[in-house]
Specification:
By secondary structure, this protein is α+β, with helices and mostly antiparallel strands. The protein has 3 domains: about 100 residues, no CATH class; about 80 residues, Elongation Factor Tu (Ef-tu), domain 3 (Beta Barrel); about 90 residues. Helix content is about 45%, strand content about 30%. The protein contains 7 helices and 14 strands. Strands 1, 2, 3, 10, 11, 12 and 14 form a 7-stranded antiparallel beta sheet that branches. Strands 4-5-8-7-6-9 form a 6-stranded antiparallel β-barrel. Helix 3 packs antiparallel against helix 4 and helix 4 runs antiparallel to helix 5. The two termini are about 60 Å apart.
Length: about 350
């Protein structure tokens, strides 16, 4: 019995020895792998956040920048013009359509009245000649033709008055340019009536005045998506919700904006200067504001807010001025933002 216990004990000791050797070998292997990784990447360090002049900066070594896909470039110069941000509303053209249809009907009635008057005028002249020449037409017939002529004159006057009233109404409600287009049957009104263009009322902020509205401007049709608009005329009435100076502009129906929709408009104003273009890939959004990361040293990046009052059609922005020879992160900016806030969270946890 004692020999059996001794055998079990020896077997257990041998098993523990073999297990210890295996664990030691495993740990040695991991240690060797770690040393090998250090030999392959001797300069690589995790990104860290430092504070310089009260602002956070991200320090990232060149190898990590390359492996993370961080790319920088100088933003290209582009023409820059100050933009006035205004408010645009897509107008419902039901009323204008009714007036245009009414004017077309009045024009048809006017032409019919002109034709009837011309016919009755010839008839009364002929009756007068026949009555004067041996009374081949009775006095009653002459008087009847004269009465018809006077009725046709009144009908023409009424048609002319209705036509003028409708044209004046269009001018009062929609401005002189659209009224002229109505009277002359020009392409502008035809495109609006046929659904080939939409009409917008663009209203400046209260107190803002333009000496002359720009012939071309843009509206924001989506997230950083712009569409061109063309000037029509001053609007005879302002938007009651904004109480600023208003203008009419047209836009293509390809903008897919329904009647009643409100969008932002950007009206160029002032002399042209040179700015720089910030591409969409360089922009990160935080707290509803746009930011870019700029390289301040070889291994150091700082976040900088940019204005968004001059968007471009491809989702970027044009800004008026930047520090000389400033490189911005064009790819990998979102990664830097994530690293910045991750490090701040870790520092906050350590402080607790």
């Amino acid at each position: 019995m004692k020999r059996s216990r001794l055998t079990v004990l020896l077997t257990l000791v041998a098993a523990l020895g073999i297990g210890g050797i295996a664990v030691w070998g495993f740990l040695q292997g991991r240690s060797e792998a770690a040393r090998e990784a250090l030999r392959e990447h001797p300069s690589r360090k995790l990104p860290r956040v430092a504070i310089e002049q009260g602002q956070p900066v991200i320090v990232l070594d060149p190898l990590s920048q390359k492996e993370s896909g961080i790319e920088t470039a100088l933003p290209p110069p582009v023409p820059y013009q100050q933009q006035i941000r205004a408010y645009a509303r897509v107008l419902d053209l039901t009323r204008l359509t009714e007036l245009a249809n009414g004017y077309a009907d009045a024009q048809a009635q006017l032409q019919a009245a002109q034709a009837r008057l011309a016919s009755s005028e010839k008839a009364v002249e002929r009756s007068r000649l026949l009555y004067k020449d041996r009374q081949n037409v009775s006095l009653a017939q002459l008087q009847a033709s004269e009465a018809t002529f006077r009725v046709d004159q009144a009908a023409l006057a009424a048609a002319q008055s209705r036509t003028r009233t409708l044209a004046a109404t269009v001018k009062l409600e929609w401005g002189p340019v659209l009224a002229k287009s109505l009277v002359e049957g020009s392409e502008l009104l035809n495109r609006l009536m046929n659904g080939q263009a939409i009409l917008l009322q663009v209203t400046l902020p209260p107190g803002v005045v333009l000496s002359s509205p720009p012939l071309k401007a843009t509206i924001e049709t989506g997230k950083n998506t712009l569409a061109p608009i063309l000037f029509v005329s001053s609007a005879p009435r302002t938007d009651p919700k904004i109480q600023g100076v208003s203008f009419f502009y047209t836009a293509s129906t390809e903008s897919n904006l329904p009647a009643g929709m409100n969008v932002l408009a950007f009206l160029p104003s002032g002399p042209q200067a040179t700015g720089v273009k910030i591409p969409d890939s360089a922009i990160v959004w935080w707290q509803d504001r746009a930011w870019v990361y700029r390289r301040i040293r070889t291994n150091t990046f700082a976040r900088m807010e940019i204005p968004t009052d001059r968007p471009t059609s491809d989702g970027g922005f044009v800004i008026k001025s930047v520090p000389a020879e400033m490189e911005i992160v064009t790819h990998g900016a979102q990664l830097l933002l994530s690293e910045e806030f991750r490090a701040q969270i870790q520092m906050g946890e350590e402080d607790e």
